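Example record for the data management plan.
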Amino acid sequence: MPRLILLIAIGLAGWIIYQKIRGLPPAQRKSAYLKVGVGGLILVVLFATLTGRMHWLGAAITALLVGLTRLLPTLAQLFPIFHRLHQQRSGAAPGGGGGNSRVETSLLRMTLDHGTGDISGEVLQGEHQGARLDDLDQAQLEALFGWCQQQDEDSARLLASYLHRRFGDSWQGEPSPPPQGTSSMSEKEALAILGLSEGVEREEIISAHRRLMQKLHPDRGGNDYLAAKLNQAKDFLLG
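Corresponding structural encoding:
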């Protein structure tokens, strides 16, 4: 009977934790599941060790593995640095641009990973300054969108595209029209958008634009605003 009560209590606690994790923003769920899994493993190992069902060496190895999992976020942050160093040493192509495109407004910075096609963003000013868009929930992002509408039209357009890409039909806002013309674009911005560096040839510009449009064209479920910015950048650099 006590064992049955214990199992019911464990099941109930697991269900409560699961419901709380489901309520987190998508970007935070994987980390939360990992923490719960590590915590559960520690409890099982401690119980097995204290009851004599596991040798102390097994507990030590488990503790070492848990410690390594805690270092994974730090290693993940350092990996892009090592990757860039490797590219530099291996003589990466001058038009590579680091493997990403960047669009920046006065309030937001959005980055497209060329390899995966994933889009991430960062808030540059305001209440959520320094926050990653992936770490904000829908209510926070909608409030940020309203603030951007009041402060900067380009930032509102960029965030609207991100909201439609992330939430789809669950976000009821209307997408802002894409920007027109290239008069306000600088060469540095155009190169950053296409992920290129200075001194690229015409063929490299056309190739980079074509490759990125395959990921971002609206007809392929891409991002209207960023697709428009790609066209702007190409037109600017080609004159």
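Summary line stored alongside the record: The first strand starts at residue 100 and ends at 104.
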